[in-house]
């Protein structure tokens, strides 16, 4: 029996999910998105829309009432509300909670033996100075939550910038990590179904301008060794 799909977020990615779901008419009977912008891109692609904030409890409950399965195009969902719902949610609210917090992301990757730059949680200005003494400069100071597309990052290159960087975040929860002077950013997009089956797309190359993605090139212009290592 076809299911009703609910999506938290109706932007560009929500539109793409909507377009893909419409081609799965045997599996998906209806698509509803929750988004604060009237006539959002997903709605323009044919989804029904609930207008509301991503974290609004009443709006999320309303979405759940109209859905058999819920997913998200953005990490801004309310995990406390989602975890209480009697609904199928993929990825789980627990996974979403990790995605929402950069420190939890780093810990998860490190605990699963994936290479990451050295990092610390930051609790005060003095703590930041102490951790930078250990890491050495340059470092990236990051807001743990509600930051994407380069927002929420402050590169510290000299001791004179430490206090300015800390004050910039105005009391937000922070983490700091050793700056990685990488040559290129590449991505592997993978999908896993509820049976545990995994499919991966070819490696792509990302080009940023002012910390915001400007272009993705597929396939990535890298050697076979890099492709093999990334996969």
TrEMBL record:
Residue runs in coiled coils: none
UniProt keyword annotation of Nucleotide-binding present: yes
Domain ATP-grasp: 106-226
Keyword ATP-binding applies: yes
BP terms from Gene Ontology: purine nucleotide biosynthetic process
Pfam families hit by this protein: ATP-grasp (PF02222), RS_preATP-grasp-like (PF22660)
Listed GO MF terms: ATP binding; metal ion binding
Pathway(s) where this gene product acts: Purine metabolism
UniProt keyword annotations, A-Z: ATP-binding, Nucleotide-binding, Purine biosynthesis
PANTHER family xref list: PHOSPHORIBOSYLAMINOIMIDAZOLE CARBOXYLASE, PURINE BIOSYNTHESIS PROTEIN 6/7, PUR6/7
Protein name: ATP-grasp domain-containing protein
Lineage: unclassified sequences, metagenomes, ecological metagenomes
